[in-house]
């Protein structure tokens, strides 16, 4: 079989397990050592060379059935001596501790560890060094562990600080949600937009749930108090919303009731328009009043308002259409009277200008009788012809007044007497003015003289 055939039929080797980053359970040294991409090669006790095992064994001793380890100048008892090689298990335990130090260092560099992971790893190594149950170079192990321990403590502090900031941000976000909910619930009713604010409160609730689900945890007591405030704000808003719409429903019902009555009256007026005896002017005034009442009734629910307005407007249009039809019929019935009335007006106008008062008065009386006999007229022609007839009547009346004033003996006597008195007064004032000696006296006499001359001129002109 060719090498190509062998490669195609032989199953691929099973990959070696890799430790899960951030796991609470430390992987075994063998698994960590097998990780090809691990930044630090982690030794496993089984893979330690014989020379390293012998070097570590040099720090141990067996006496009286007890294994001890040399740590500086001290010999520390680590456990009972058992088996043919009593130091071997303690030496392997030393390399297991050494491997755990290097494993911690590797995980610090290549994995996301939690605080518990770091504390557990540090605690295990510290316990092994504080009360050693191993045989090996403890001083070298401590020296190797010191920088790893410092890095682990720094990593733990950084995680704690990050968590603290995350908790502060989470708390601030919750406070922001609650404050906004309380602002919505506490707003004056006149400024509330019920639809938008209801949707915003629903969105704030979703934000709260998302913060709970994905944000950092905050103190349960604090969270419970914030939730209590948030719930109270939402409950208060919902109670106010229900109250508002209950009042609105009541107001809408009252508005609809008032407008229903107005529509009924409008429809009754429209139905009565079929009666020949309808008082159209009165009906028009009533519709004007109904329209004012409609405006004063206020706004109700839009759909109801629109339906009622459609009925009201239909009744109003029907009434005024009937009035127009009635007026058109009347105009048509009265049209034949216009010709006779026009002839009467022309007869009256033939007396102008008034030169013979008696003849003009006789012509006017005859024309007036003919105008009356013509009968009722359509509104437009009636107004125009009436104005023309009135102009003739006014001209005859003015001519008659002028004639009376010019021939009134009593009036002539009064004018003559006043004229004579003024002439006498003027002559007297002129004589006195000629004899006056002081400027003040001359001024007063001159003013009196001018006044009487003006009066005389007015009378004589009349």
- What is the CA-based Rg, rounded? 61 Å
Low-confidence stretches: 1-43
Q: Decide which structural class fits the backbone.
A: mainly alpha
Large-scale geometry: elongated
Beta strand count:
3
| Average pLDDT, all residues | 81
User: Helical element count?
Assistant: 15
Termini Cα gap: 156 Å
The major pleated sheet works out as:
3 strands, antiparallel
How helix-rich are the residues, as a percent range?
A: over 70%
Q: How many separate domains make up the residues?
A: 5
> Numbering strands along the chain, what is their spatial order in the largest sheet?
1-2-3
Beta-strand proportion: under 5%
Helix-strand sequence: HHHEEEHHHHHHHHHHHH
Can you offer a commentary on this structure?
The protein is mainly α and 462 residues long. It folds into 5 domains: 29-162, no CATH class; 170-245, no CATH class; 248-333; 337-406; 410-461. It contains 15 helices and 3 strands. It has helices at 3-9, 29-34, 50-57, 88-110, 115-130, 138-186, 194-214, 220-272, 280-296, 302-334, 337-349, 357-373, 379-406, 409-435, 439-461; strands at 60-63, 66-71, 74-80. The protein has a 3-stranded antiparallel beta sheet with strand order 1-2-3, with no helix packed on it. Helix 4 packs antiparallel against helix 5 (115-130), helix 6 runs antiparallel to helix 7 (194-214) and helix 11 (337-349) packs antiparallel against helix 12 (357-373).
């Amino acid at each position: 079989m060719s090498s190509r055939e062998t490669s195609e039929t032989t199953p691929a080797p099973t990959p070696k397990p890799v430790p899960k980053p951030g796991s609470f359970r430390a992987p075994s040294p063998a698994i960590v050592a097998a990780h090809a991409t691990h930044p630090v090669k982690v030794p496993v006790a089984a893979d330690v060379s014989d020379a390293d095992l012998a070097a570590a064994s040099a720090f141990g001793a067996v006496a009286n059935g007890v294994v001890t380890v040399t740590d500086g100048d001290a010999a520390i008892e680590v456990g009972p001596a058992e088996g043919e090689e009593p130091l071997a298990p303690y030496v392997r335990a030393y390399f297991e501790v050494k491997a755990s130090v290097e494993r911690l260092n590797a995980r610090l560099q290549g994995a996301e560890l939690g605080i518990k992971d770091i504390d557990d790893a540090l605690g295990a190594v510290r316990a092994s060094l504080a009360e050693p149950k191993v045989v090996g170079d403890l001083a070298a192990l401590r020296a190797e562990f010191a920088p790893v321990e410092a890095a682990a403590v720094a990593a733990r502090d950084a995680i704690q600080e990050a968590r603290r900031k995350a908790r502060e941000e989470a708390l601030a976000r919750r406070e922001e949600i609650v404050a906004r909910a309380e602002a919505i619930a506490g707003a004056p009713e006149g400024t509330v937009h019920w639809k938008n604010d209801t949707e915003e409160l629903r969105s704030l609730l979703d934000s709260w749930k998302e913060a709970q689900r994905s944000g950092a945890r905050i103190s349960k007591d604090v969270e419970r108090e914030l939730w209590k405030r948030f719930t109270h704000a939402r409950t208060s808003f919902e109670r106010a919303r229900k109250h508002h719409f209950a009042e609105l429903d009541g107001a809408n019902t009252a508005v609809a009731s008032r407008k229903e009555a107005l529509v009924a009256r409008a429809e009754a007026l429209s139905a009565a328009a079929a009666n020949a005896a309808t008082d159209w002017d009165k009906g028009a005034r009533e519709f004007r009043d109904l329209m004012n009442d409609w405006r004063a009734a206020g706004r109700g629910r839009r759909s109801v308002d629109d339906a009622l307005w459609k009925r009201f407007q239909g009744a109003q249009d029907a009434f005024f259409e009937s009035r127009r039809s009635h007026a058109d019929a009347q105009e048509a019935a009265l049209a034949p009277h216009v010709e006779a009335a026009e002839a009467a007006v022309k007869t009256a106008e033939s007396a102008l200008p008034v030169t013979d008062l008696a003849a003009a008065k006789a012509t006017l009386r005859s024309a007036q009788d003919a105008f009356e006999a013509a009968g009722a007229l359509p509104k437009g022609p009636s107004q125009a012809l009436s104005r023309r007839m009135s102009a003739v009547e006014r001209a005859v009346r003015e001519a008659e007044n002028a004639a009376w004033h010019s021939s009134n003996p009593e009036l002539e006597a009064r004018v003559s007497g006043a004229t004579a008195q003024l002439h006498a007064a003027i002559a007297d004032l002129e004589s006195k003015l000629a004899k006056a000696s002081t400027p003040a006296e001359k001024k007063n006499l001159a003013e009196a003289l001018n006044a009487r001359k003006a009066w005389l001129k007015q009378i004589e002109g009349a």
